[in-house]
Amino acid sequence: MILAAKIIQLRKQANWSQEELAEKMNVSRQSISKWESTNSIPDLNKILMLANLFEVSTDYLLRDELEAPTPTDERIDNNAIQVNLDHANQYIQSKIAAAALTTKGVILCVCSVIPLFFLMAMEESGRLNISDDIATAGGIMSILLMVSLGVSYFIKMNQYEADFDTIDNEQFELCYGVHSVFQEKLKQFRPTYNRRLSLGIFLFISSFAPLMLTALLHGGQDLVKLMLIVLMLMISAGLFLVIPASSEFEAYNNILKDRDMESVKSKRAKRAEKLAAFYWPLLVAIFLGWSLWTMDWGVTWIIWPVGAVLFAALLGLMELFVKDGN
Hints:
It holds the Pfam family HTH_3. The protein is mainly α and 326 residues long. It has helices at residues 3-13, 18-25, 29-36, 44-54, 58-62, 85-111, 114-125, 132-156, 161-169, 178-206, 209-217, 221-255, 264-294, 297-300, 303-325; strands at 81-83, 172-174. The protein folds into two domains: 3-62, 434 Repressor (Amino-terminal Domain) (Orthogonal Bundle); 82-325, no CATH class. The protein has 15 helices and two strands. The chain starts with a helix and ends with a helix.
């Protein structure tokens, strides 16, 4: 295979256009086109850049008789599973799909108390002309229904375990060219991840503000309960931003971990996701148990603003212990 054909093959394997390859090589698109059409040959410096970019040897690029890429280093593990571009892309898509299920389940658990607060607010204001017993019974039924639906989403995540097994649990090697593709994808996704994580943390921290201001300035129990709904929605919005972005960021780093690319941020995101999946259903259970035991729904709602602040505190505490443990 001649050099021109190898450049075309490697570029397509990396899923790059001529313009993208030209930008990485710091040349014009016309230069790439001439290389691929055999109208010109890259100089020695460009050959070295191509070898480094595609993670192949210069021998492979220059010797026509070599049909298969040879690695740029000698780090080959014969026991490692080879992961090609399709396999890696499937892993990313499965991680994103599983994160979507996790997000739906957690948000359903968090929002399960919204109908209860709404019905209780309407009962206290007299707008819907419902009794306290009807409001409580309707709210509890909605909690049970939404939590059950949320748990069903957690169970559905099992369908993706086979797609995760190789990269999460086995020793693997990336096929040549795959590492550079996902390194570029991670670089492009990082600003989105940082933006979503920052906004999500802001929503967690500020979710208590509307409730606190309403309690201080107005004091009406019906309006306070409506602000509790706002608190739940802000927490849900934060989870909607953080969980999918964290899972996708973690997936890219898992693909690259054979090159020691797994970052501290990825580990932190993974811990936050696991805490959220455990913490919010548990908080719903505590709220229900306390409320049904005392039947004092006008007091037990306080668990939600306290729980929101405690969630942020637990994240910080986890990082502190991990840092001390290292």
